[in-house]
């Protein structure tokens, strides 16, 4: 019975990692590639590691594997977000059929300031300090 469960987890993990690889090839821009790869590869690696933990049948190995899976689940989305944000700031263009650009008009490339709302998009932090001192 354990072998069947291990086989199912390993197969599903392999399928998700394969889908991540296909997504890297098929997606038209950097941002979609990051999205597809992060989700599919994280789930795939987690399932493969879980299959290994079940197969080992050792509590110490299982604890380490669960800690690694938790670490991957916590860090993969953060690193993908930072890679995507850096790509945007570096000027990597969105795909022509992208539906929306949430950061359009909020990021000033010359001052490298990202504004949280559209009302203050024209003023940077240094502009506010100058106005307060006058």
Automatic annotation (TrEMBL):
Keywords: Membrane, Transmembrane, Transmembrane helix. InterPro entries: PhaG_MnhG_YufB. The chain crosses the membrane at residues 6-25, 37-55, 61-83. It comes from the Bacteria. Residues 115-134 are annotated as: Disordered. GO terms for molecular function: sodium:proton antiporter activity. This is Monovalent cation/H(+) antiporter subunit G. It comes from Antarcticibacterium arcticum.
